[in-house]
Design brief:
The protein is of the alpha+beta class. It folds into two domains: 31 residues, no CATH class; 130 residues, no CATH class. The chain is 23% helix and 32% strand. It has three helices and eleven strands, in the order H-E-E-H-E-E-E-E-H-E-E-E-E-E. The protein has a seven-stranded mixed β-sheet with strand order 6-3-4-8-7-2-11, with helices on one face. Strands 1-9-10-5 form a four-stranded mixed β-sheet, with no helix packed on it. The radius of gyration is 22 Å and the shape is globular. The relative contact order is 0.21.
C-alpha cells in the first residue's frame, strides 16, 4: 500500500516527476526537425524576373490560374505532401502567375520571396507568396513536408529577414 507524502504525491514525490520526464522525452522524440522561411529580396528579384532555376523542382498551391504560393525545392529533396501540385514551370507561366498574384505586372506590394531553410539553417529551396507563414518539417533522408499557406497574410511573424 502506498502512503501519501506531505507533498501530496507518491512517497518521496518521485512518481509524478518520472511520468513528466517520460512524457517530455516522448514528445521530443516524435517532434522531428523544423525549418523556417528567411525573407530574401534576392528571391523576390529572381521570381519577379521570371527566372527558373534548373536545380529546383517547382510546385504550387492554390488554383491553376492564381496560385497562393510557388515553391522551388532542390532536386535532391523530396516533397512529402499531397497539398502541392508539381509544375514544369516556364518563364511565361511564372509571368502570368505573378501578374495574377500581384494584380500589377511586375510589381508586388506584399509578395514575399523567401529562402526555405532546413533545421540547420541551410537553404533547400525558395518560396514566393503573399503569405509568409508555413510549417516546414524535416522528415529525414532529404524528405521535407511544407504546408501551403493558410488564412490571411501574417506580415512577417514567422520569417527571419535578410537584407539585400
Amino acid at each position: 500500500m502506498r502512503t501519501m507524502g506531505s507533498n501530496g504525491g507518491c512517497e518521496g514525490g518521485r512518481m509524478p516527476w518520472v511520468l513528466i520526464c517520460l512524457a517530455v522525452l516522448a514528445l521530443v522524440a516524435c517532434g522531428g526537425s523544423y525549418g523556417t522561411l528567411q525573407r530574401s529580396s534576392a528571391v523576390d528579384r529572381q521570381f519577379e524576373a521570371y527566372e527558373i532555376d534548373p536545380n529546383y523542382n517547382y510546385f504550387y498551391s492554390g488554383s491553376d490560374n492564381k496560385p497562393r504560393a510557388i515553391i522551388g525545392l532542390e532536386k535532391n529533396y523530396t516533397l512529402v505532401s499531397k497539398l502541392w501540385k508539381p509544375v514544369d514551370l516556364t518563364p511565361d507561366r511564372l509571368n502570368n502567375w505573378i501578374e495574377e498574384m500581384t494584380n500589377f505586372k511586375g510589381y508586388a506590394l506584399r509578395n514575399l520571396g523567401s529562402n526555405i531553410l532546413d533545421g540547420q539553417g541551410q537553404a533547400i529551396g525558395i518560396w514566393y507568396s503573399l503569405e509568409d507563414f508555413t510549417t516546414i518539417r524535416m522528415l529525414g533522408d532529404k524528405q521535407v513536408s511544407i504546408y501551403p499557406p493558410v488564412g490571411r497574410p501574417t506580415f512577417g511573424e514567422n520569417v527571419r529577414y535578410q537584407l539585400p
